[in-house]
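for the writeup, i need someone to sanity check this before i put it in the appendix. the sequnce is what the collaborator sent (i think, or maybe the updated version? ugh). structure was predicted straight from it, no edits. if anything looks off just tell me and ill rerun, i have time this weekend
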Amino acid sequence: MKLSPRDSHDDALAAQVHPPDWVNPTPTGRYNLVAIGGGTAGLVSAIGAASLGAKVALIESRLLGGDCLNTGCVPSKALIRSSRAAHEQTQAAALGFAGSIVGDWDFAAVMDRVRGLRAQISHHDSAERLRSLGVEVFFGDARFTSGKTLDVAGQTLEFRRAVICTGTRPIEPRIAGISDVGYLTNETVFSLCELPRRLFIIGAGPIGCELAQAFCRLGSEVHLINDQERLLPKEDECVQQLIAARFAAEGIHLHLGWGVMQAQQLGSAKTLLIGRGAERQELIGDEVLVAVGRRPNIDSLELAAARVESNLNGVQVNDFLQTTNPRIYAAGDVCTTARYTHAAYAMAMIVLRNSLLLGRQRYSRLVIPRTTFTEPEVAHVGLTAAEAAKRGIAIDTYRVDMAEVDRAVVDGRSEGFVAVHTRRGKGAVLGASIVAPHAGEMIGELTMLIQEKRSLATLARTIHVYPTVAEALTRVALEYQRSRLTPRVQSLVKKWLAWRR
């Protein structure tokens, strides 16, 4: 990965996560565990194993910290924070100020802050810190030479166990002319120093949606293009409609159900020809950001030499995260479609127990929530209503709109809802969606209920601070409790109280 614009922040980042003067250690003896890839899964595996007293090596070909630190969670959330501040200023009149402030944001300063925060946080993932914790750090491309050895930078490492944590990279779009025109991905967008006046974003998943709203709030004319008729395709239809309406209200141009047919350079501008059925439309802009999916980083590993099988989705693993070579495990984005930092962390913990401590923990037992950090945030865990219907599972849904929650109302952020799906006639939670401020903070309680196989009755007994948006969880649990007061129960209670007078 090439750091750009290579300012003082990027120099500070590189000094932590790929020091220019780093000298790889000389391998001695067999390693208990070799982690290939220095993202979340690799870091957690290596540090955890070293803390147990294991002899551990970690190999990274680019920058320690992986996507999360360098091109994903950290820089994107820093950018989103600045964009939210910009948006709040435009809404000042609604909060009682004399008038709104029309944006005149210093985009270069915003991006300088993004890169500065990334460098500040990078010490957690630094090569020096890993070495101080007992991890031998190697920089270079790893390739298997057998089922128990691999090569990095001309040196051979022998291992008892290994874990592949090489992550993914953006898919190259199959659009005529796009390579000639040039495009941004999450790996390059945070290198921008000048705000694109007109920005095309291809793909309306979490990355596309988060960046569409952020750049629009900072002043770009944003066109969000998706070949499906909806955005955030994993979410329930009511969630999709709410976010689409919010985007349209903020001025994002939505082209849902339109495919990109061709890209061309027109002077200093870029043009996209988009189509939907027989319709055609030409869009003219300044930058193109592509966010249409990810592909696993496995091409250079020479997996066949280690008897490790893979497919288009990545390394094949069983429920214990073992590959087809039982000595070798995998964790993180390279072997799952649940491509979240917190999922990679949880998978790495499974690998530690199963590879070094004779554990038998199963990946299928993890309950993994997700959050898209738009405003409002979109969080989900478990089954959606559509997934339950597809599986033939009858559900009851309990919903509370944020407009009924006092804190959301006084904050002027009452858009959204909490919806919890339970097994029909029971309180056992099967899934939940939250569209609200801080939805990502709230989804944890519902994740715990699913993980521990508890019902909404547990949540009803939990006291939440008033006034907070988390009060919506109490309200949805009370909706469940009220549903249990059937006419027969109400009649019995009424008779009991009359007898007790």
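The longest strand covers residues 155-164. The chain has a mean pLDDT of 94.
thx in advance!!
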